């Protein structure tokens, strides 16, 4: 459980939100009946959040949580699409205002940020209506947790949002008639669910996979209308101008149509949105107020634009690993493996995008590769690919995940299954100490043989390194791990492992733990003499 959100975790939430919206987009579009049944709320939210995520790509990864949220808000505002996109951009702006340039966001800070976000979102709409995404945002901000912990605040906000979403048909007659909840409110719940998963300690895209693995809440399909009752066009543009001019523009647009919003980033850039019949008058009003650009006009009875397919396959698995031998082993299992000595985000990104797959699961081969995998995934998600990083702290966990991978499952279900397999694989290592150090079981000297179980040193065998010392430590580690149960032991032999060591381990297991099967692969790694996996 996270105690506070730092810059990296905010980035992970943004990526998880985009991944979740991507899968929920069609379901949200289908239930879009208010304010106009133009079946695009899910698409608009996804486009807006994807633009927000893209704004992070030029931002230093070592920034503050506040600077990351500010970048998200600016990116969302500049590319906000539809009424729902404008509202979300202002919600993010409120989060940014409340956070400032804080290094991290604690539970109380998140509570304050949600309040300011809901306040600015409501202010973005000329005539707020109960039963919309504004009601859902207000409910999330109003719920007070008994605890100030980050996860408690996030969970209470998400729970309140879900309850408010379920109540929207009782507040808005058009929703009740169609048998659906508010589409924008459903998008808010997706974003808050992703936040809960991230603060609960899951990786960026894995949290999205857990959110999207559930069936859509409200599958009823609303009929598409040929426009609103009075207005046939949606007009949007960015405006560079002063606050007083923006206020005049808002009043002018209210006289031309409905669903008016003129919202800014606090630095002279405004996003303008209106439903109207006189497109020319709406644009001319913008010219009078400042300099409009990125003008977009959509007619409600036109079919919504669909994204041109750019993927050549549905599913792929990618694994960055440390050795040629392990890469070859995984490639034989159909995995796109990248041998990484000096981690590079862009090399991994090239492999991810090069798969041509709509859904990619990334299995980093050790803890040192998880961070670059997360960053590469964020960049791929921003470009429209669904990428999930399955946390793996050892190459044996990668093998366990690959063993249960099944492309016939739904993408979200398959990712969850791989993550569970990796998490259930206990890991061990036999390593030669590179320097003198203090461990949990006492001091070690350079050249000693160390035994690790689940990341902690459990044995120190004084050097020199030879078959006997390696065998004693390997037996000791396996004995401890199998003492808690286990039916399968997977061993990856490193480049420096003596060939006789495999036979010694087989003899040990046959005599001491005959219930456990042994599988040995040539891993070729240089960071450990042996990697163990116990399942």
What does it look like?
Helix 19 (501-512) links the parallel strand 14 (488-493) and strand 15 (517-522). The chain has 19 helices and 16 strands. It has 535 residues and is α/β, with parallel strands linked by helices. It has helices at residues 7-30, 41-54, 65-79, 82-99, 107-123, 133-142, 150-171, 173-178, 183-199, 204-213, 243-256, 279-289, 324-331, 345-354, 367-382, 395-404, 411-423, 467-482, 501-512, and strands at 233-240, 257-264, 269-276, 291-299, 313-321, 336-339, 357-362, 386-389, 426-432, 437-439, 442-444, 449-453, 456-461, 488-493, 517-522, 530-534. The model is unreliable at 213-227 and 303-308 (pLDDT under 50). The chain is elongated and about 85 Å long.
Strand content: 15-25%
* Number of domains as seen in the coordinates: 4
> On the 0-100 scale, what is the average pLDDT?
87
Please list the strands of the largest sheet in the order they lie side by side: 13-12-9-16-14-15
Under CATH, the topology of the largest domain can be stated as Serine Threonine Protein Phosphatase 5, Tetratricopeptide repeat
The Rg value, from CA coordinates, equals 27 Å
- How many helices? The count is 19
**Gross morphology:** elongated
Q: Name the helicity range.
A: 40-55%
| CATH A-level architecture of the largest domain | Alpha Horseshoe
What's the CATH H-level homologous superfamily of the largest domain? DhaL domain
How would a textbook summarize the main sheet?
A: 6 strands, mixed
């Amino acid at each position: 459980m996270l105690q506070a959100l730092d810059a990296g975790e905010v980035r992970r939430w943004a990526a998880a939100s985009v991944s979740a919206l991507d899968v929920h987009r069609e379901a949200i579009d289908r239930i879009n009946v208010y304010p106009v049944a133009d079946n695009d709320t899910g698409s608009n939210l996804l486009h807006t959040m994807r633009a927000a995520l893209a704004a992070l790509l030029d931002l230093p990864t070592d920034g503050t949580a506040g600077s990351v949220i500010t970048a998200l808000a600016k990116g969302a505002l500049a590319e906000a699409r539809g009424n729902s996109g404008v509202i979300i951009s202002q919600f993010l702006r409120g989060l940014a205002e409340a956070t400032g340039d804080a290094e991290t966001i604690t539970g109380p800070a998140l509570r304050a940020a949600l309040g300011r976000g809901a306040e600015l979102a409501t202010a973005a709409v000329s005539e707020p209506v109960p039963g919309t995404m504004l009601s859902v945002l207000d409910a999330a901000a109003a719920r007070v947790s008994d605890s100030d912990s980050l996860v408690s605040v996030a969970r209470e906000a998400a729970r309140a949002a879900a309850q408010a979403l379920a109540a929207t048909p009782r507040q808005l007659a058009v929703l009740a008639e169609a048998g659906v909840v508010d589409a924008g409110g459903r998008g808010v719940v997706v974003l808050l669910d992703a936040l809960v998963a991230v603060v609960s300690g899951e990786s960026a895209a894995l949290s999205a996979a857990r959110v999207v693995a559930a069936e859509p809440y409200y599958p009823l399909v609303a009929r598409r209308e040929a426009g609103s009752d009075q207005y046939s066009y949606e007009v949007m543009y960015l405006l560079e101008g002063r606050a007083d001019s923006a206020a005049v523009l808002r009043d002018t647009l209210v006289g031309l149509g409905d669903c008016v919003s003129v919202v800014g980033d606090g630095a002279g850039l405004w996003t303008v949105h209106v439903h109207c019949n006189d497109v020319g008058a709406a644009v001319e009003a913008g010219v009078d107020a400042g300099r409009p650009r990125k003008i977009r006009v959509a007619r409600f009875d036109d079919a919504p634009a669909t994204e041109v397919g750019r993927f050549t396959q549905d599913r792929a698995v990618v694994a960055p690993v440390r050795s040629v031998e392990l890469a070859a082993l995984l490639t034989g299992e159909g995995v796109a493996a990248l041998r990484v000595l000096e981690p590079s985000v862009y090399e991994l990104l090239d492999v991810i995008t090069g798969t041509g797959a709509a859904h990619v699961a990334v299995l980093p081969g050790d803890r040192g590769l998880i961070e670059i995998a997360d960053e590469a995934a964020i960049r791929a998600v921003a470009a429209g690919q669904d990428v999930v990083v399955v946390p793996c702290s050892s190459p044996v966990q990668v093998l366990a995940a690959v063993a249960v991978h099944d492309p016939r499952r739904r993408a979200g279900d398959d990712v969850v299954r791989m993550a569970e397999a990796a998490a259930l694989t206990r890991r061990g290592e036999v390593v030669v100490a590179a320097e003198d150090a203090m461990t949990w079981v006492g001091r070690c000297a350079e050249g000693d043989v160390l035994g690790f179980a689940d990341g902690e040193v459990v044995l120190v065998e004084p050097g020199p390194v030879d078959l006997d010392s390696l065998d004693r430590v390997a037996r000791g580690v396996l004995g401890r791990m199998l003492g808690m149960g286990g039916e399968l032991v997977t061993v990856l032999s490193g480049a420096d492992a003596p060939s006789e060591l495999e036979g010694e381990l087989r003899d040990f297991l046959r005599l001491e733990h005959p219930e456990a099967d042994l599988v040995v692969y040539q891993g070729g790694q240089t960071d450990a003499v042996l990697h163990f996996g116990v399942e």
